[in-house]
Amino acid sequence: MSNTTPADPVGAPVATPLRRPSSDGAAKGAAKRAKRMKSLRGGALNAVALVLAVFFVFPVYWMLSTSLKPASEVLTETPTLLFTPTFEHYGTATGVDMFWTYVRNSLTVTIGAVLLALVVALAAGFAIVRMRFRGRKGLLLAVMMAQLAPWEVMVIVMYLIARDARMLNSIGFLTVIYFVMVLPFTIWTLRGFIAAVPRELEEAAMIDGCNRAQSFFRVVFPLLAPGLMSTSLFGFITAWNEFAMVLVLNKDSEAYTLPLWLTRFQSAFGNDWGATMAASSLFAVPVLLLFLVLQRRAVGGLTSGAVKG
Amino acid sequence: MTVHARGVAPTAGGPVEDAPRDTGEAGGVLPPGDPAPRSTARGERDGRPRSSGWLPYALIAPAAVSLLVLLGYPLVRNALLSFQRLGRIEMISRATVWTGFDNYTELLGDEAFWTVVVRTFVFTAVNVVLIMGLGTLVGLLLNALGKKMRLVLSLALVMAWAMPVVASATVFRWLFDTQFGVVNWAMRTLGFAGYEQHNWFETGFSTLTIVTLMIVWASVPFVALNLYAGLTTIGGELYEAARVDGASNGRIFRSVVFPILKPFFLITTFLEIIWVFKAFAQIVALNNGGPDRGSETLPVFAYIEGMAQMNFGVAAAASVLTILILLVAMSFYFRLILKQEEEQ
User: Fold this and answer.
1) Contact A123 B285 (CB under 8 A)
2) Is B74 within a domain?
3) What is the ipTM of this complex?
4) Residue B175 structural domain
5) Do the Cβ atoms of B15 and A230 come within 8 Å?
6) CA distances from A243 to B169, B270, B280 (A)
7) Does B96 map to a domain?
8) Going by C-beta distance under 8 Å and a sequence separation of 6 or more, which residues neighbour residue B110?
9) pLDDT 10s digits, A130-168
């Protein structure tokens, strides 16, 4: 779900006037007209792009700007554009009872789920790519299908299972569910990264005296670093944003994660939109930054030739 | 036995779409329990064993077991539940009451359920058409823009894409707030009447319109950026050749771009169908399926029916039906992926 390098300046084909007029004067006129047409078209495209950019960025901008506005300028009939930024709303949001518990819960479930998934997926991915065994195709198919598992539609049965197992309001159980949620994608992606490491490197290491495990940890594993990075990024985002399961399973406020807290916060704080937007920003900004910082590197890591030498 | 690689399937839509596939599975694997791996490391190319003994099974066991226990079992249990009566009484007495197809007949005979079904299909269709249409246009625009403007638009798109659903829902509540929302202000400023204190969440239809806006806003970037990434793989010569032949822009899209990227369009369309059909957080976080259950789609209906109405059996039946519908879309999607794999 990440096949993009947004800032990638790969040369886009540009429409070039190919018609070569016969006479000189006509050529000049035509070239001029073509140039004007082109700049006109370029200008129009830029204008459309600008409008679109504003449309797409506006909700994010509005969230951040509202969170920084002084309280008196949030609830106004006419929105203010210029204001002196203040962090008072962030104080309100983080000062809420148990805010740090929610942060801790969120970090526990996401980091726990991602680490577990990485270890388990690395083992499975390695077996799938480098070994032959009965049921390999079946496993691959299952992993592929599990990526689209309709977790949102399974909340009821998960609630009943958790209830029977006395696992409601358990951070551990939530971690395990998130682990299984991100596992198929992690296997699927890591598989590609493992396959990209030339087998010869491993063999060379074995000739040099490494055993299989050593050659994996000393040669293959370091080369997988970019892959592990981007894969865990997406696992992290999935688990960090998850809402349906925690909504159904963790009714005790002590077991909330940040997304659940955010929806509860909104109803608890009613019209304090400054504080609500501060809470939203606290929750969203880490993800926005991760996306921006890691996305290019994650995609570039594979293609930039780390394995060519 | 040849050294020929049985190519590893590509990861469609993943970040490693074109990972070199000839390396996977090319060589053999150590024979089980071989005490001297060094000595066999080279020779196994010719005498590759068919199976690698217990090692691969040990390696996949954790993954397979977790998927079976936490995904397979719940799916089976869900199906079983749909044949049980499980309401308030049974929840307390913990009795298992089998009722056959009662839950299904109750659902299928319920007009409210059919309203939800129709609503879900219409909602999905509208969303997917908008996402694919606008996403394609924005992707083509990205391709036509200059470097700087492309960067600006890409950044804006990534922001919308990266925004967590629950945060977006909170922000959209604020944008469309009755009293101080910026949208009502904008409508008033643009001269529309009736936007003093307009309540955007007054009806299910209006709520779903905002859900649609939110989903389209968040999903167009995925289509646009991926389409742009795909467009950059088409060589400039193709466009030029088409232009020399006198093709217009529309014609180039139809006859050059679309055929090459057809797998992309098909796969993305089915992915979006699946994602929109099971949209849950957007609807629940925005208005909890309300007002008066008016913005419920199938997944939300199953959730409310279970958690709020305590009809767990009926909820499970609704969820089974939803999963069956999803399976139809998924089977198309998987067929496309497998076909693409074979072609490569």
Assistant:
1) no
2) no
3) 0.82
4) 103-343
5) yes
6) 12, 23, 9
7) no
8) none
9) 888 888 989 998 999 999 999 999 999 999 999 999 999
